[in-house]
Amino acid sequence: MTPRKPRPANASKPTPAPEEVLERIAREEMGIETLKKRWSDSLDFHNVGVGELRNALEAAYQAGKRDAGNSPAVAP
Q1: I need a labelling partner for 61 at 20 to 30 A (CA). Which of 27, 28, 29, 44 fits?
Q2: How much is the pTM?
Q3: What is the dihedral sign for C-alpha 11, 2, 63, 74?
């Protein structure tokens, strides 16, 4: 595994995804009803199949592409 390159000090952190988008993906693609901590192992830890994980990652990728297309252009 190749180590990640350090981010330059002046680089901004990516904007976090809207909570409702993450909740929807977790619910629809992985069968997880909430992403809020409930302080119980049986509620906070889930067995997830690779197919569900792949679908969730694909949904997140597509949501990111949609959001990127709706963002105003930023001048360098």
Answers
A1: 44
A2: 0.68
A3: positive
Which amino acid is residue 70, in one-letter code? N
- Entry field: residues in the chain: 76
**pLDDT tens sequence across 47-67:** 999 999 999 999 999 999 988
Q: How far is CA 28 from CA 1, 12, 18, 25, 64, in A?
A: 31, 31, 16, 5, 17
Per the CB < 8 A criterion, the answer to whether 32 and 46 are in contact is yes
Give the span between the Cα atoms of 12 and 9, in whole angstroms.
8
Token representation of residue 75? 């001048």
What is the tens place of the pLDDT at every residue in 18-40? 899 999 999 999 999 999 999 99
Whole-number Å distance between alpha carbons of 43 and 70:
35
